[in-house]
Structures are given as C-alpha cells and as structure tokens.
Amino acid sequence: MMELDKVMTVEGVPNLIKIEEADNKILQDSIIDLQLSKEIFEMSKNEENSNGSVFRVIMEYYYKSVKEHNFIWSNLLVKYVGEDYASYYKDVYKFDTVRKLIFLMKS
C-alpha cells in the first residue's frame, strides 16, 4: 500500500488517478499471475532435482506473464495519463492495489 510521503508531485503531470473497476480487475489479475509465476519460477530454479523440460515450461510461462503484465500496465497508463506521460514517467508511475490508484512514486 502506498504511503503518502512517497507520492511525488510534478506540476501538470497526472497523479493519484482512480482507475475503473474493470481495469482494476484486469490489472490485479495480471499482478497475481505474475507473482505466482515468479514464485514457482524461483522455486524451480533452486530445485536440485528439477527436470530441464519442466523448468523450461515454467520459465516460459513466467516470461509470458511478465510480458502480459507489462503490456496491460503500459496500456492502462496510456489510457489514464496519456501516451506522453506514460512514456516519460513509466518507471515512476506505480499502482496502489488497495486504493486502486495510479500515482507517481518518489525515488
């Protein structure tokens, strides 16, 4: 959850944007899928008796999850803040899953 002291304000740049419930569900689902696939990938990476072909499938699914999440996040940023801001601030915008807000995060 976001802490207000970590929110950055840049004059003229959209910040603290509430997203629609449908978009929230899509993004939340992609975050959950990404977290689960990452956990499975990390566990299988450290597994001594890991089968190479099974590991490859897990790794491919994890990379697919990363790619899908990045695609969803990029599209939602463009939708809510516009293409210019989404491109320029893409590494600074974050999503608060509890408040369902897109915000700029101080580094």
Proportion of beta-strand residues: 5-15%
Identify the overall geometry.
Answer: elongated
**Strand order of the biggest β-sheet:** 1-3-2
Oligomeric state of shown chains: single chain
Mean pLDDT: 89
What percentage of residues falls in helices of 4 or more residues? 55-70%
Radius of gyration: 16 Å
SSE ordering? EHHHEE
Low-confidence regions: none
Number of helices: 3
Major sheet summary line: 3 strands, antiparallel
Helix-strand makeup class: mainly alpha
Please describe the topology of this protein.
Elements: E1 17-18, H1 21-46, H2 52-81, H3 83-88, E2 93-96, E3 101-104
Antiparallel strand pairs: 1-3, 2-3
Helix pairs in contact: 1-2
Task: Please give a structural write-up.
The chain is mainly alpha-helical and 107 residues long. The chain has one domain. Helix content is 58%, strand content 9%. The protein contains 3 helices and 3 strands; from the N terminus they run βαααββ. The protein has a 3-stranded antiparallel β-sheet, with helices on one face. A hairpin with a 4-residue loop joins strand 2 and strand 3. The longest helix has 30 residues. The chain is elongated and about 55 Å long. The relative contact order is 0.24.
